[in-house]
Amino acid sequence: MIWTILLLFHGILFFFFLSNRTRSKREPPLDKGVIPWLGHALDFGKDAAKFLTRMKLKHGDIFTVRVAGRYVTILLDPNSYDAVLQDTTSLDFTRYAQVLMDRIFNLKLPNHKPDSEKSIMRRHFQGESLTCLNHAMQNHLWTLLTFETTAQNQTNWKQDGLFGFCYSLLFRAGYLTLFGGEQKNNCMDAANVYMEYQKFDSLLIKMAHTTLKSGEKQTAGSVKQRLWELLAQAGLRDNSSLWLQSYRQHLKEEGADEETQRKAMLLQLWATQGNVGPATFWLLAFLLTHSEAMRAMRKEFNSATMPGTITLDPQQHTPVFDSVLEETLRLTAVPFITREVLQNKTLHMADGQEYDVRRGDRVCLFPFVSPQMDPEIHHEPEKFKYDRFLNADGTAKRDFFKGGRRLKYYTMPWGAGTNACVGKPFAIQSIRQFVFLVLSHLDIELSDPEAQVPAVDASRYGFGMLQPIEELQIRYKLRERPCVQ
Ligand code: HEM
């Protein structure tokens, strides 16, 4: 009894301490919100972009908010981002990542060494190995796309939702490329994994926020169980990529048991397959609703094929595609870059101001608000402009300014610093290849010619690629004679 009272007393003291925090002069503006302990958690979770834009108007480029008992300092000046990204001593990436790993994947890795994992991945996602992966991905995309279109009567249009069409094809091709699959029945295996993954993905944000209702908890549990079983052989069979085989071997050497290894396979499935499909959806949605962009894209692809073939020359530069992708990601890639403060620290801002942040707090960059949607950097930032990242002479545009200073970070869909996306070149080539295949081998159009790009699901802000709130209906059929025009 005495222990219960003591614990309760400490709990109340701790709660009081957290609620009663006051700002010292050298700290960023503090906004605790009106709800005790929760602070701004509800607004943050509902639509982080809207909430943080409102806070920026109120407090400026740096401020601290209370979110479910934690104090989070938000930094929104891209000229000052390096103050966070380059400090790996006082600011730590792994702790928060581990919290999410546990919440979403029930995964606790023994002797977790993120640097070794990253170096395994870097080794397999560059140079000769990357060329092999790109080639395998291209073959799987081609097989799945032709299977999809010839399974029906070739001359008939097929109706579909563009999001499901892109996500399902890229996910299955990516899964077969990296994870391998049942030797005898590749396509069914990949389709089963995709089906279960979709259920998992639909609950992912609630898992991360720990807001699953009791029925959803059960569903999440059983879906994860099924995925762990489906992924049991990933990295063990010969047709898994060399990267996944090395990673699984690494897990064994680190002392991870069989169950932990399977859980880690699901984590990798999410990291490698969760963004490419949605990114390609947005890109094609913008092309289908912006005829000038579509014309420019087709023209460029037409001149980038290998002579006498309908195959994209991997050596050819495609600046129009690069700009379309950059612009698509500027509007729809929305990561949080979060660090845990390990020791009290002073943040030096680009304008000369200094702010103290406290040990135990988190610091978070949200590049979507700035640079990506910052009107000072990108004129009419809410509009899709396919040539925003092109100079007048057709070369890639890299000069963007804020406060008179040239920006190092003018868009940040791939993260930055030590935790920047390792799979970026593979992702870009997969998207480029898929868009090329679709435009050259399919007649594809909007079911309703007046349809617009759907709104985003605002609850997904902060978790990488956004997803649409509803489908964009398309119809497509295989071209009798493939060509890009
Ligand atoms: C459009 C597609 C993609 C986008 C927008 C994207 C974006 C990102 C971002 C923003 C991060 C940093 C996360 C953070 O700081 O917390 C990241 C990390 C990562 N990405 Fe990607 N990614 C994509 C595709 C891929 C692909 C295809 C792979 C692998 C095949 C991949 C592998 C990784 C890995 C392993 C990390 C973790 C790096 C680390 O912890 O240091 N990504 N990605």
Task: Please describe what this structure looks like.
This protein is of the alpha+beta class and 485 residues long. The chain has a domain at 114-337 and 366-478: Cytochrome p450 (Orthogonal Bundle). Helices cover 49% and strands 12% of the residues. The protein contains 17 helices and 15 strands. The chain has helices spanning 2-19, 41-46, 48-59, 82-85, 94-105, 114-124, 127-150, 162-178, 186-209, 214-230, 242-253, 258-273, 276-289, 291-302, 319-332, 368-372, 424-441; strands spanning 30-31, 62-67, 70-75, 91-92, 158-161, 333-335, 337-341, 345-348, 354-357, 362-365, 401-402, 405-406, 442-446, 463-465, 473-478. It has a six-stranded mixed beta sheet. A three-stranded antiparallel beta sheet has the order 5-15-13. Helix 10 crosses helix 12 (258-273). The radius of gyration is 24 Å and the shape is globular. Residues 118, 121, 271-272, 275-276, 279, 333, 335, 337, 413-415, 419, 421-423, 426-427, 464-465 line the site of protoporphyrin IX containing FE (HEM).
